Amino acid sequence: MGFFDDVLPRADRRTAPERQTVQPAHLGPPQGWVLPTVLPAVRVLARSDNARIALVGVRCWPDGVSLDLHLMCRQLAPDAKEEWGFRFGVLTSDGRRAAAREFPPGPRLGPAPDGSELVLRPIFGGGSRFHRHWEFYLWPLPPKGRLTMVTDWPAEGIRETYTELDAGEIRSAAARAVVVWRDLPVASDAATAVDAGRNGHG
Asked: CA–CA separation, 178 vs 64, rounded Å?
């Protein structure tokens, strides 16, 4: 018997292997079974004397795109809140709009959208007192033309700022994403959500 065998609790062993399942595409990127195409897209989206909002990565998936935003402050006010209060939104070439705030992302359940509306969801976030970063997932892929990103951060004096990306380039990159496993089963709760969405939209 080794030192750790009777000091640390033993992890329960599974009696059968656990297999990865596929979730509906609107809930988040297919990480774990798809390799995205990464576009070099580092740029400052908005700025003030004390703060910056920057895009530091665009990952293109078969059905959506991840946009990684970083926020930086030179200094914090004495009464600075834990939530920074910035907002992020997108506008597609066909006039559809979607917006999101920082964490928490909100509920993920409910009827699956039919693709006519945009879903913009914060998937991941973290950082430190002077730096925060968020990954926002946009579904479905935007149509060709301009994908306009809109940001503001009122507490830091940053008003609405518009930055354009080439959605055609995003779609081309998404077509090059590599699906590693095509035979994964659909999660049972995912199938229920998809069926509910289909029933809700006729």
From this structure: 14
